[in-house]
Amino acid sequence: MRFLWPEVLWLLLAVPVLVAAYIYALRRKRKAAIRYASLMLLREALDPRQGIRRHVPPALFLLAMIAAIVASARPSATVTLPSEHMTIILAMDVSRSMLAADVEPNRITAAQAAAKTFIHELPKNVRLGIVTFAGTASVVQTITENREEMLAAIDRFALQRATATGSGLLLSLAQLFPDAGIDLEAAVFDSAFSRYGGGGASIDRTRKAGRTEKKDFKPVAPGSYTSGAIVLISDGRRTTGPDPIEAAKMAADRGVRVFTVGFGTRDGGTIGFEGMSFWVRLDEETLKAVANITGAEYFHAASGTDLSKVYQSLNSKFGMERQETEVSALFSAATALLVIAAALLSMLWFHRRS
Fold first, then answer.
1. Sequence-separated (6 or more) residues with CB below 8 Å from residue 149
2. How far is CA 300 from CA 15, 134, 157, 223, 236, in A?
3. Distance CA 343, CA 171 (A)
4. Residue-range domains of the chain with CATH
């Protein structure tokens, strides 16, 4: 819990002073009672039942005062609330490795079916954009609330050669921030290292090419952007395009979480293409690193059913969001209840009107 006005909490130092004053007043009252000739007054003052009850209203009033001071300090806490509005970018690998039949009937068909279920179960407050990537990345559906358009986009997937995971991530980021000046073309053409082994300097150029944003841009904490997220699904290793780790760092600088899903069996599968066979397998290390850098999670789905379960889990995350909220009203309500309780008990037990 955090306090917006923490200096108000210094008033709590008055609490032990009030307790000491209360104890002092009780002792003086007992001494005064002994001086009275009336045995009835003496009996009332020394009655053990009255000894317990008479402390309850003052104790409740003291707790009310503490709650009022805490409320005045404007406490805030991180709570989970329904998100008002959220934009999700679904980045789907459509490389030819998605033809592998280790997932029945094959990876791409199972992935499309699971994606459609995901769309049907999206919370109403969530908008969706769809990006596909193979040798290049493309937008197959701009951000929309129309579920029919989303479903039609899933049917337009077309498989291509190669896997440019970084391109898919950068293009997804550009959809979330269309005015940020993220230049995917510059990033792609500066990434010759991916095919020709250019080295670390090229990696730095790739990040700079993709980061042509305004000069006043300031990085934020990873995972702090609550208005959107990226769900990236891949079944293989990057073979071309920008480094996905560098793209993930760009997403992290903007606070965007990238939930990654490794689709397919961990042992991999074989695909046939143009008379040749290829062995394909997951690159879980990279997918886990992307999720970790951006403050998100990695999921593994070995079947269409597993992928559907992953989508269900993600939907529950997108329907709710954690945000810091001021909770002064709760302490104010506690103050009122404690004061009312103290007054009622005082009137009930001692027939007092104050």
1. 141
2. 55, 20, 22, 21, 12
3. 64
4. 2-78+325-350 (no CATH), 85-302 (3.40.50.410)
- The single-letter DSSP state of residue 121 is T
> 235 near 306, Cβ under 8 Å?
no
pLDDT tops 70 at residue 292: yes
Residue 350 vs residue 4, higher pLDDT = 4
106, 278 contact by CB (below 8 A): no
Local confidence band at 176 (pLDDT 50, 70, 90 cut-offs): very high
Q: Considering Cα of 43, then 44, then 46, then 49, what sign does the dihedral take?
A: positive
Cβ-based burial of 289 (10 A; exposed 0-12, middle 13-18, buried ≥19):
middle
Q: 79 near 226, Cβ under 8 Å?
A: no
Which residue shows structure tokens 């329904």?
82
What angle separates helix 147-155 from helix 107-120, to the nearest 10 degrees?
A: 180
Helix (H) or strand (E) holding 127: strand 126-133
Sorted by sequence, the CB contacts under 8 Å of residue 48 that are 6+ apart come out as none
